[in-house]
Amino acid sequence: MARTIWLHPWGNHCFQFCIGLTSITIPSSVTSLGGAYFNGCSGLTSIDIPSSITSLSNSCFMSCTRLTTITFPSSITSLENLCFEFCSSLKTINIPSSVKSLGIFCFSCCSGITSINIPSSVTSLGDYCFSGCLGLTSIDIPSTVKSLGWNCFNDCENLTSIIFHIITSPEYLYSFKRYDPLICKLYLPKKSIDKNKFCRGKIETS
Q: Does residue 74 sit in the same domain as residue 124?
């Protein structure tokens, strides 16, 4: 039997490891979810976040391993550290255009993700943000991203294309470590500088 819980704005770790929880109704009276609020709720399959919430705290939905769908409102401006780490059943992420930054390990080890929409509102991706996303085959990074965190796309072993829409190199540290340079192509604008700074794969311009 599905179990539904009506939420109140309680503190950190509120429903941590409630493995029998299968659905969530978050009313508009809730304005924030504390750290690790639903961490380890492995029975959850979908989340619909109301527009009253502007950010998701650290480890908020970490290890919700059956979570397949997330509906983000346009009110969300940031996804904090480890927010969806180990959500291995997620397939597609549509990040709203209101989001400005993604925290460290935000979607790390979400091995089921096959596509990511990074909107032009995003300016930075945290360390290990998408590391271990084995299902990813391509990444399209908008020109607004100025900083790629350490090992941001580490162990994304099945990448075949990385598309940048930038002219100058962003700040980054080993952002694309452990991809296959014989398969993965890097696409940069023709006017881009420091083409060889990005990675050791095939480089094409457009």
A: no
| Strand partners of residue 164 | 141
| Distance between first and last Cα of the chain | 54
DSSP state of 170: P
Residue 135's identity, in one-letter code, is: G
Mean predicted lDDT score pLDDT of the chain:
82
Spatial separation of the C-alpha atoms in residues 196 and 20, rounded to whole Å? 50
Asked whether the beta carbons of 65 and 87 are under 8 A apart, the reply is: yes
Q: Please state the pTM of the whole predicted model.
A: 0.84
Residue ranges of E strands in 85-192: 92-94, 101-102, 115-117, 124-125, 138-141, 147-148, 161-164, 171-172, 185-188
Q: Note whether 117 and 202 are same-domain residues.
A: yes
In a domain, 102, yes or no: no
Question: Which residues of the chain form beta strands (DSSP E)?
Answer: 4-6, 23-25, 46-48, 55-56, 69-71, 78-79, 92-94, 101-102, 115-117, 124-125, 138-141, 147-148, 161-164, 171-172, 185-188, 202-205
pLDDT digit string, tens, across residues 98-126: 999 999 999 999 999 998 889 999 999 99
**One domain, residues 111 and 203:** yes
Q: Is residue 131 part of a domain?
A: yes
- Of residues 197 and 39, the one with the higher pLDDT is 39
Contact partners, residue 22, CB within 8 Å, separation at least 6:
2, 3, 4, 43, 44, 45
For residue 77, the enclosing domain spans 1-90
Does some domain include residue 36? yes
